[in-house]
Structure formats: structure tokens, C-alpha cells
């Protein structure tokens, strides 16, 4: 009998992955961390320097801003799931390539199946493009949209907001909209998990 999938099993597969050339240059893969208790799955673009060093997502300056934004609406990092469309750092922090995103897509789908989130929050245009192809982030940010089995809530990436104050203001406003959405959307309206929700897990910090 096949064992049910789990976040731990997915993390082990990510850490051993060689599906694309990014595996050759990584120091640590970054499977993701958090839990599914809030029903929110954040997905960014790709690990940066600090994430590659520690094997954890959003631990640099952009991650600090994300943590602040979560706190502003009463959410703790441990209550959400945080990942990226690619789980190994692209060289020189370049944009992830379509084939790299595709190589990692199965891990995203497996995590989504285990967690069964109420909403999928995309951070940045590359994450948004995976679920809302052809849309412009400047036009649709902060607006929940249905994409297949999931409600997708596109936002600007926190890294972009660090360099453009106007984007930071829009991120703050979009987090307020996310909070409003979560308050008015009953949990039972979310796509149900394909299996019993696991206990919250956090990938170990690697140094």
C-alpha cells in the first residue's frame, strides 16, 4: 500500500532533486516551511543568498518585510506556508526560467494537495504567471481570482517593495485586503485537502 504524501516526504524529495541545472549550483534546496493552520499558502519566486545558505524561504530583508506584513494582519509565519516556484537559488539572483519553474511544479502541487489551502498568495510576477498567465501584476494585485482548484491572490514581491516605496504602500494595502478576504470567507468554502491535514511542521534551520 502506498504511503500517504507528507510535507516531510516532499522536503526530502526537494533536497535530493536533480530535475534542473539549478541543483548543480545550490548550497541548500529550500522546500518551504510553516503549516496549513491558517489556510494561506504563500509562493514567491526563488531563494536568494540567505535562503541558499540556510535552506529556509524568505529569511533575508524581503523575508523580514514579509514577517512584518503578516504581523500587521495578525498572522504568524508559523501559521502560513511559505515557498517559491523554484526551490534552488538561480545564479546571481536572476529570474527563474520557465523550464526551472516547470521542473519544480510537481513539488508545489504535492504541497498544495497535502495542505489544501483556502487561498494561494503569489508574490511577484513569476509566481503569479504560473496561475494567472497573461495578466499584469500592476492590474490585478490585491484581487482574488479563481485558477483551477484554487483562489489566487496576487501581490507584489516584498523584495520589489524594498526598493520602491509606492509598492510597499500597495503591499500594505493588499495585506489588509487579504485579511478582509480571510475574515469573510468561511474555511469550508476552501478546496478540501485530499487527505487529513498534518500537524504543523517547520523545516529545520540549516547552518
- The number of strands is 6
Q: How is the main sheet built?
A: 6 strands, mixed
Sheet-strand content, in percent, reads 5-15%
Straight-line N-to-C gap: 37 Å
Percent of residues in helices = 40-55%
Low-confidence residue ranges: 188-207
* Major β-sheet strand ordering: 1-3-2-4-6-5
Average of pLDDT: 90
Report on this model:
The chain is α/β, with parallel strands linked by helices. Helix content is 42%, strand content 12%. β5 (145-147) and β6 form a beta hairpin. The longest helix has 20 residues, at 165-184. The chain is globular, with a radius of gyration of 16 Å. Mean pLDDT is 90; it is low at 188-207.
List the defining traits of the structure above.
207 residues, 12% strand, disordered C terminus
What's this model, at a glance?
The protein has 207 residues and is an alpha/beta fold. The protein is built from nine helices and six strands; from the N terminus they run ααββααβαβααββαα. The chain has helices at residues 7-15, 22-25, 49-54, 61-72, 98-115, 125-131, 137-140, 158-163, 165-184, and strands at 33-34, 40-44, 81-84, 119-123, 145-147, 150-155.
Amino acid at each position: 500500500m502506498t504511503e500517504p504524501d507528507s510535507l516531510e516526504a516532499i522536503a526530502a524529495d526537494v533536497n535530493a532533486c536533480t530535475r534542473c541545472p539549478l541543483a548543480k549550483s545550490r548550497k541548500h534546496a529550500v522546500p518551504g516551511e510553516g503549516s496549513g493552520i491558517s489556510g494561506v499558502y504563500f509562493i514567491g519566486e526563488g531563494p536568494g543568498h540567505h535562503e541558499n545558505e540556510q535552506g529556509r524561504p524568505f529569511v533575508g530583508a524581503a523575508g523580514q518585510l514579509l514577517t512584518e506584513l503578516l504581523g500587521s494582519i495578525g498572522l504568524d509565519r508559523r501559521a502560513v506556508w511559505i515557498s517559491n516556484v523554484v526551490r534552488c537559488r538561480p545564479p546571481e539572483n536572476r529570474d527563474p526560467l520557465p523550464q526551472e519553474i516547470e521542473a519544480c511544479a510537481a513539488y508545489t502541487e504535492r504541497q498544495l494537495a497535502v495542505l489544501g489551502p483556502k487561498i494561494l498568495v503569489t508574490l511577484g510576477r513569476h509566481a503569479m504567471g504560473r496561475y494567472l498567465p497573461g495578466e499584469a501584476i500592476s492590474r490585478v494585485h490585491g484581487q482574488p481570482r479563481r485558477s483551477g482548484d484554487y483562489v489566487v491572490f496576487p501581490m507584489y514581491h516584498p523584495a520589489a517593495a524594498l526598493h520602491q516605496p509606492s509598492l510597499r504602500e500597495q503591499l500594505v494595502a493588499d495585506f489588509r485586503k487579504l485579511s478582509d478576504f480571510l475574515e469573510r470567507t468561511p474555511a469550508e468554502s476552501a478546496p478540501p485537502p485530499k487527505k487529513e491535514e498534518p500537524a504543523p511542521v517547520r523545516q529545520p534551520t540549516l547552518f
